[in-house]
């Protein structure tokens, strides 16, 4: 009886030892897992990781480990499996890592698609040449100024349903702030800008086939809007500027707009930074002093207020205006007769002189 009791005690002791060892092993495994998952780690410098569409979770984990973003692919896999159980998934794209983070934090960024993007802001009234320079300076990896300008010509089919006459995307690259990934192409950039134009033009009332007074189609409306955009930076004045131009078009009077002349000079490489009398004598298609009607196409990319003004110019008797420009009073001066206009010009020049100008 004593021997059998000793045997039972030995078995219980061995079982207890096994349970204890197993428990210690679990604690050690849990501790190691917690260390892998919850201890912040990072590459120590700006590092980019690009996750391509269709990448497996294991491949992503290996990429992150190789880049030094996570300590171990296995720690990331643990969090990923938990994420799959919750129904989340990893998003393709390029990610930037520059600070230490835990594995759950890294996983959360990729699960919500927090990809790295660059921002570029296009001001209202910028030409495609000015936009090309801004985009080229934004830091995209595969876009030069020349690339953008080439795309602004090659991608005109994007708007042929709106403007079959368009030879470039001038006028249809809507001014706004855009965010793109670093490896975006010039074609993708102009496509996004055109999509934005379509949305905003519809809001402004610019629609194909709609009669809009002297501007019966999208091409003419956007061309008129671009002139309005470059003539005044004051939103409240844009409808009045549009009415002046519309009235002159209706009377077959030359528009005599300096911005159009400047655009023609820029295209020909003859712009000298200021308009000279000799420039007004040059016979270019954009010289609205020598030619009646609208110029061949838009001279800039108008914003929403200018598009609205051109789509529905108000009814006025104005035929002349002195653009705000350098006017110290900061406003344009409108007139219905040449006599009134000459008085406005004299008043404008006096204001400039009193302000210390020439």
Please give a structural write-up.
By secondary structure, the chain is mainly alpha-helical. Helices cover 49% and strands 7% of the residues. The chain contains 13 helices and 6 strands. It has helices spanning 2-38, 57-66, 73-85, 103-111, 128-137, 145-154, 186-204, 218-231, 238-250, 258-267, 277-281, 304-311, 338-354, and strands spanning 47-51, 93-97, 118-121, 177-180, 320-322, 333-335. The strands form 3 sheets. The chain has a two-stranded antiparallel ribbon. Helix 2 runs antiparallel to helix 3. The radius of gyration is 33 Å and the shape is elongated. The termini are far apart. Mean pLDDT is 85; it is low at 19-32 and 210-215.
Secondary structure topology:
Elements: H1 2-38, E1 47-51, H2 57-66, H3 73-85, E2 93-97, H4 103-111, E3 118-121, H5 128-137, H6 145-154, E4 177-180, H7 186-204, H8 218-231, H9 238-250, H10 258-267, H11 277-281, H12 304-311, E5 320-322, E6 333-335, H13 338-354
Antiparallel strand pairs: 1-2, 3-4, 5-6
Helix pairs in contact: 1-3, 2-3, 5-6, 6-7, 7-12, 8-9, 8-12, 9-12
